[in-house]
Write a structure and sequence with these properties.
By secondary structure, this protein is an alpha/beta fold. The chain has helices at residues 3-17, 22-27, 40-56, 69-78, 92-100, 130-138, 164-174, 195-204, 239-244, 263-273, and strands spanning 32-38, 60-67, 83-86, 105-119, 127-129, 155-159, 190-192, 208-213, 222-223, 225-227, 250-258. The radius of gyration is 21 Å and the shape is globular.
Length: 289
């Protein structure tokens, strides 16, 4: 059951059980609704923020749904959400579509994230360079033995293409940040609909490799250290290594609004960027401060 549905049920029960006159007093409380949709990477953090904020501001109702960065951005362009969550920047063509609809997107960086590269705990490989990860995911390397593992075929796991994590990984790992590089995921890559799907497959498949936001990595997966190039230091993802810049696969996480936020939406975003940062590290992400 969704968070907002639960809140609605609780309010209904309170209204039914209250003393005479209490129901009318409840309806006198002003209510503001905020629709928040998008990145699956951000969804758990967004839910935690919404719950905390509603506890402090009972007059505000915040609905949070996932579906991927592309889904949230499309909803913002169409004018059906107040806030779009994204684990990537809006693309130039998305900004143009928004402007064609009379919407000027406003970008807010709300947290930072490391993208962890994960394998089954039995895999003997402990670290890879960015170039090796790119070679694996483009299909240039198809056997673990080529990167120091056992003689086993590599099983590639990825998020689906509407995921901001997919877009970031394509542009910054497969293409190594080179805008002229046109590398693509191997056609043998298994596209998973969610972070949970990647985790489940990693747990049961000793040949699999996947990537996910650090906040979604569970103890029953093995996180690989990553080096920028051969001869460089291999670094594990953490709050410390993201903040220092040592871990090479990290990114900002965004919220977008249709124009400069006003009223309840502005108050909510101000809270996220200040007091709300206390929840960021608890959920495996990197706070701004």
């Amino acid at each position: 059951m969704s968070l907002c549905a639960c809140v609605g049920i609780v309010v209904g029960l309170l209204s039914g059980c209250a003393a005479p006159g209490a129901a009318s007093r409840l309806t006198d409380v002003p209510s503001v609704a905020i629709e928040n949709m998008g990145s699956d990477t951000l969804v758990n953090l967004a839910l935690a923020w919404a719950e905390d904020y509603m506890n402090r501001h009972p007059e505000v109702r915040i609905s949070v749904t996932g579906g991927g960065s592309g889904t949230g951005i499309a909803a913002l362009i169409n004018g059906t959400v107040d806030i779009a969550n994204a684990s990537r920047e809006m693309k130039p063509e998305e900004i143009e579509r928004a402007r064609a609809n009379g919407i000027e997107p406003r970008e807010f960086v709300v947290a930072r994230d490391a993208i962890a590269v994960v394998v089954h705990p039995s895999n003997p490989v402990d670290g890879l360079t960015l170039q090796q990860i790119a070679a694996l995911y483009t299909g240039e390397i198809t056997n673990w033995q080529a990167v120091g593992g056992e003689d086993r075929a590599v099983v590639l796991l990825s998020r689906e293409s509407n995921s901001g994590t997919y877009v970031y990984f394509l542009e910054n790992v497969l293409r190594l940040g080179d805008p002229t590089n046109q590398a693509l995921f191997s056609p043998d890559t298994l596209l998973m609909p969610s972070s949970e799907g990647i985790s489940a497959e990693i747990r049961q498949n000793p040949n699999a490799i996947g990537y996910d936001g650090l906040g979604y990595v569970t103890p029953d997966q093995k996180t690989l250290a990553v080096a920028r190039a051969s001869g460089d230091e291999y670094v594990l993802p953490s709050v410390k290594t993201v903040n220092s810049g040592a871990y090479p696969i990290s990114r900002p996480l965004y919220m977008y609004t249709a124009g400069e936020p006003q009223g309840a939406v502005k108050a909510y975003l101000d809270w996220i960027l200040n007091e709300g940062q206390a929840r960021v590290a608890e959920l495996g992400f990197v706070p701004l401060h």
